[in-house]
């Protein structure tokens, strides 16, 4: 199973140049089983659904004039369950999407999130996600833009560390790693990669698992 997490910066690069067409081409080429995106406009969400001919779910966290803004997940498997949840937030509303499906008759849970800019806020948000996933059964992946370096989640492996890639940046402006893929201990990882493409102010992070 191949999963990608990517903050797409509303379809713009680090200099706010429109990169949506290139982004769509990249997502087609990468051919992931699960695509987790952050900073998604709802209008872009529908374009992704149509252009990639894929199923998906958009969760609004902020209402903008003429559009909505949030996080989204896309998948090729038959999904058992998907829903979005709000996290405690100080300024801009944050949240996560939980998607659940079977791969090779094994239950897999994907959590896609985008955490806040305040450190104390993020601590509470991580605790809320951890409390939520504690009630889940099956295999669990938690991924997204955590807006912080050196994040740890109890009982979960950081995929980048397992592949000795913890010093590879995912966020261009600060040249730091703030985008993560965490996995439960019952998963078998086979690959971790950061794609250095300039379609956003973040780089996409890819993880692969044998299920």
UniProtKB/TrEMBL annotation:
InterPro entries linked to this entry: Endo/exonu/phosph_ase_sf, Endo/exonuclease/phosphatase, GPI-anchor_lipid_remodeler
Entry keywords, A to Z: Endonuclease, Hydrolase, Nuclease
PANTHER family for this protein: CALCOFLUOR WHITE HYPERSENSITIVE PROTEIN PRECURSOR, PGAP2-INTERACTING PROTEIN
Residue ranges occupied by any Endonuclease/exonuclease/phosphatase domain in the UniProt entry: 4-202
An annotated Gene Ontology molecular function: endonuclease activity
Listed Gene3D superfamilies: Endonuclease/exonuclease/phosphatase
GO cellular component labels: membrane
Superkingdom assignment: Bacteria
UniProt-recorded name of the protein: Endonuclease
Organism the protein comes from: Paraclostridium bifermentans
Pfam families for the chain: Exo_endo_phos (PF03372)
GO biological process: GPI anchor biosynthetic process
Keyword Ligase: no
